Amino acid sequence: MKALTIDHTSPGHLALTAVADPEPTAHQALVEVHSFSLNSGEVHHVVPDGAAGTVPGWDAAGVVVRAAADGSGPPVGTPVVTLGPDGAWAELRAVDTELIGTVPEGADLGPISALPVAAGSALRALHRIGPILGRRVLVTGAGGGVGRFTLQLAARGGAHVTAVTSDPAKADSLRELGAHEIVTDLAALQHIEPVHGVVELVGGAHMVAAHGALAEHGVLVAAGHISGEGEQFPFGALFGNAHRHNRQIATFYLLDDSAGLGADLTWLAALTARGELDPQVALRTDWTQVARAATELVDRRVPGKAVIDVR
């Protein structure tokens, strides 16, 4: 089969080459990939730092061409959306059936390929917060891929949603996705009404400021660290006898929270197919152009998700 492999001598550290077909284990289905999406962590870290000859890629959508030998998962011919630690940027991928969601017949697999990491992380992070109907939820890094899904899902869940972005020009688009208020200055978080939950995607000063906005018994889910900065909490911020006590910080990693993820991906795919969830695809091209697409994503010239079509 053909696959994009890591090649540090090629533009964008990627080369389209012939490699052996993957051999599924008993609990894996073999999927013919139609489209995959690029994630920030892949283009910033996985590809430039990865081992030469390996096939990267977390998100892909396609059709099952060999069902899992143990009888789990969907049958041959089923359109699916998949998640895995690697192997998505290829004509075929072997994927654990617990990480497969089914897709409605006739749905465009391109936008649906953008769901697993970004929408899956958004949904699971909101689950960690707990019930959000009628509550206040804060999202940092709201203009990124995970942030945009979080806004939509939190608003759909009945939350009052506050979006934090460093770019005031994004305010209107974030409101269209469900944000009820926009914050562009971290200092302003000291003055907003306390929130019940935070999906924190930036790290550093954003995490510290967002934690300070938590209400009593509030939960901050650290689901991203795009700033690359560490956190320094001021003295007293974590005192248990503070006015707003028992505030929690929960770490998060999607692949360590995979139980039931296939069902979540199925639900997200159905929402997308019905037009009720917008993956915000800003760039769509074929896989001969993946190096260019990755560069544009690194340079923050893609205001949404990047989708790559294989066939």
Give the topology, please.
Blueprint: E1 2-6, E2 14-18, E3 28-38, H1 40-49, E4 59-66, E5 79-83, E6 92-96, E7 100-102, H2 109-112, H3 116-129, E8 136-139, H4 145-156, E9 160-164, H5 171-176, E10 181-183, E11 195-200, H6 205-212, E12 214-222, E13 248-251, H7 261-273, E14 281-286, H8 290-298, E15 305-309
Organism: Streptomyces durmitorensis
Pfam family, one: ADH_zinc_N
Protein name: Zinc-binding dehydrogenase
Task: Provide a compact summary of the structure.
The protein has 311 residues and is an alpha/beta fold. It is built from 8 helices and 15 strands. This is Zinc-binding dehydrogenase.
Structural account:
This protein has 311 residues and is of the alpha/beta class. The chain has eight helices and 15 strands. The strands form three sheets. Strands 3, 4, 5, 6, 7, 14 and 15 form a seven-stranded mixed β-sheet that branches. Strand 9, helix 5 and strand 10 form a beta-alpha-beta unit. The chain is globular, with a radius of gyration of 20 Å.
Annotated CATH architecture of the largest domain: Alpha-Beta Complex
CATH topology of the largest domain: Quinone Oxidoreductase, Chain A, domain 1
Taking all Cα atoms into account, the compactness measure Rg is: 20 Å
Query: What is the straight-line distance between the termini?
Result: 13 Å
What is the CATH homology-level superfamily of the largest domain? Medium-chain alcohol dehydrogenases, catalytic domain
Total beta strands: 15
Overall outline: globular
The number of distinct helices, counting runs of at least 4 residues, comes to: 8
What profile does the largest beta sheet have? 7 strands, mixed
Helix content range: 10-25%
Quaternary? single chain
InterPro entries: ADH-like_C, ER, GroES-like_sf, NAD(P)-bd_dom_sf, Zn-ADH-like_protein
Organism: Streptomyces durmitorensis
Pfam family, one: ADH_zinc_N
Protein name: Zinc-binding dehydrogenase
